[in-house]
Design a protein that fits this description.
The protein has 13 helices and 14 strands. The chain is α/β, with parallel strands linked by helices. Strand 13, helix 12 and strand 14 form a beta-alpha-beta unit. The longest helix has 16 residues, at 323-338. The protein binds guanosine-5'-diphosphate and calcium ion.
Length: 339
């Protein structure tokens, strides 16, 4: 880690050593970026109790089943059964059922539900129909594999992200997958969020954590959606743990994805400094104590520090089995300097 800020920090403010191995880690995460980071974290902190507080704004009822894209990306990645080439869904997938659904005109033809993936959605839907909460259903789905982390939907309430466009209001997944985020988004609306609550489990995970990490996930429709759920900002404001985020933007580009289109809708520039300042310093009513930026963005460190956010620069490319674990170690090292 290029510790640009270290020269300014007194030794007393930078405790490392025994403290450097947190026992309980809470992570705020979306789907693919969240999953890649979670894999790295599991490798970097194999003995920690990791709770992943996941976005549910992408969830959608489709062909009679409840689909949770971000929870499923996390589940499949941690279980080692995800399609790493496509970046979503199950490995070795087939689409016989999807072809039948399309023939009946049911569902979205551009949103393929693979057969194995449908098994997950059917199982989840059966559990929900039997009265389970999404948290309980997720725990039961997770029990099938040794994930090395607990998956916690941020809320059990439905808060679908709607996108306001010139062609009307679309569900987030329709805007993202069918229009490839090409249709300009004027606004994102978390439908029903005013009636939603953070779950007791997610709240406890944040309150009891030694470190809270914000994964390099979409800052608007993954992290922003999590932060919009009533109770989340309060949990972050009151936890004794340092809150450290990892920038999803490298060198002014939203790597692997269309996050720039989301940032444009909220008038935030697609750069690491702007996104860090958008989340804001916890000491000034925001959510971050620390923000890890990419080496390419090292020149953002002084401005972040001036805004009350402890910052450092490091390589931030998330490649499973290598750099992702180092990114997690660097995020934990930054947190150790804050604790
Ligand atoms: P989604 O829910 O599947 O869209 O995934 P997330 O919200 O968890 O993450 C998507 C974001 O991850 C993208 O918009 C990128 O900004 C970020 N991302 C993807 N790959 C990388 C990477 O290798 N390094 C970093 N730092 N960020 C990444
Ligand atoms: Ca997502």
């Amino acid at each position: 880690m290029t510790d640009v800020a270290a020269s300014a920090a007194s030794p007393a403010a930078a405790p490392v050593g025994a403290d450097a191995a947190p026992r309980r880690i809470a992570v705020l995460a979306g789907g693919v970026g969240g999953a890649r980071f979670a894999l790295g974290l599991r490798e970097a902190a194999p003995d920690a109790d990791v709770a992943i507080v996941a976005n549910v704004g992408d969830d959608v009822w489709l062909a009679g089943v409840k689909v949770c894209p971000d929870l499923d990306s996390l589940l499949y990645a941690l279980a080692g059964v995800g399609d790493t080439e496509r970046g979503w869904g199950r490995a070795g997938e087939s689409e016989r059922v999807a072809a039948e659904l399309t023939a009946y005109g049911v569902g979205w033809p551009w949103f393929t539900l693979g057969d194995l993936d449908l098994g997950t959605h059917l199982a989840r839907t059966a559990m929900l129909r039997d009265g389970a909460t999404l948290t309980e259903a997720t725990a039961r789905l997770s029990a099938r594999w040794p994930l090395g982390a607990r998956l916690l939907p941020v809320t059990d309430d439905e808060v679908p992200t709607h996108v306001v466009t010139d062609e009307g209001v679309l569900h987030f997944e329709e805007w993202w997958v069918r229009t490839r985020a090409q249709l300009p988004a004027h606004r994102f609306v978390q439908h029903g969020v005013e009636r939603a609550r953070i779950t007791a489990e997610a709240r406890a995970a944040i309150a009891d954590a030694d470190v809270v990490l914000v994964a390099p996930s979409n800052p608007v429709v993954s992290i922003g959606t999590i932060l919009g759920v009533p109770g989340v900002r309060d949990a972050l404001a009151t936890t004794a743990a340092p809150v450290v985020g990892v920038s999803p933007i490298i060198g002014g580009r939203a790597v692997r994805g269309m996050a720039a289109a989301c940032l444009a809708a909220i008038d935030v520039a697609p750069d690491a400094l702007a996104v860090g300042l958008h989340h804001g310093a916890r000491s000034a009513g925001g959510v971050l104590d620390g923000w890890l930026v990419a080496d390419e963005d090292a020149d953002a460190v002084p401005a972040l520090e001036a805004a009350g956010i402890r910052a450092a620069a490091a390589p931030l490319w998330l490649t499973p089995g290598g750099p992702a674990a180092q990114v997690a170690r660097d995020a934990l090292a930054l947190a150790a300097r804050i604790r």
